[in-house]
Amino acid sequence: MECSFALTGKDYVLVAADTTASRSIVKMKVDEDKIKTLSPHLLMAYSGESGDTVQFAEFIERNIRLYHIRNLYPLRPQSAASWIRRSLAESLPAESPHLYWIDYLGTMASVPFAAHGYGSYFALGLLDRYHNPDGSLEEGLDVLRRAINETAQRLVVAPGNYIVKVVDKDGVREVKL
User: Fold this and answer.
1) Angle at alpha carbon of residue 160, lines to 157 and 161, rounded to 5°
2) Structural contact between residues 109 and 101, judged by C-beta atoms closer than 8 angstroms
3) Residue 50 and residue 22: Cα distance in Å, rounded?
4) Neighbours of 19 (CB within 10 A)
5) Do 97 and 13 contact (CB within 8 A), yes or no?
């Protein structure tokens, strides 16, 4: 029952993911961080079987770091998303913020907002209606709060806690809702 949400604003990308790690109907952990910081200005949210997703996220993080070490400059978001997509397909700072949706088959799309998991059934309509691409960080947090509250209200087994991170010109940081 994993849920993750993301949206772009005028000069930021906001990413939230629930903190529950579960298998079938059993909660294993309630403080799992499902958002990997890949570089000072690059985040990746992930979900799925915990062993596979953590290993894949660490693989991506280390290879992006290796690229930075070898070339003395970091990958930009579009290049990093393309490299991740290519990595997925083979196995089966930017001028403005970018948010990419990449599924397990390697399909990639640049999107203004995203929702994944059962929470997406409730959140996508809200994100479509209230998302303002030129909005401030506070407006983005309000929209994200709406999506999380709607999911909590309507989803029978809604996750209780979320980690929220923002990436902007100052880098990656965690924010409170």
Assistant:
1) 145
2) yes
3) 8
4) 16
5) yes
Rounded CA gap, 90 and 85, in Å?
Answer: 9
Instruction: Return the ∠ at Cα 54 (arms to 146 and 93), rounded to 5°.
Output: 65
C-alpha to C-alpha distances, 3 to 37, 81, 117, 128, nearest whole angstrom: 18, 21, 5, 17
pTM, rounded to two decimals? 0.69
Q: Read off the DSSP letter of residue 74.
A: P
What pLDDT digit, counting tens, does each position of 75-120 carry? Answer: 999 999 999 888 877 765 445 678 888 887 888 898 999 998 888 9
Which one-letter DSSP state was computed for residue 136? Answer: -
Question: Please, which residues have CB within 8 angstroms of residue 37's CB and are 6 or more apart in sequence?
Answer: 43, 61, 165, 172
138, 168 Cβ separation under 8 angstroms = no
**What's the CA gap between 104 and 6, in Å, rounded?**
18
Q: How many residues does the chain have?
A: 177
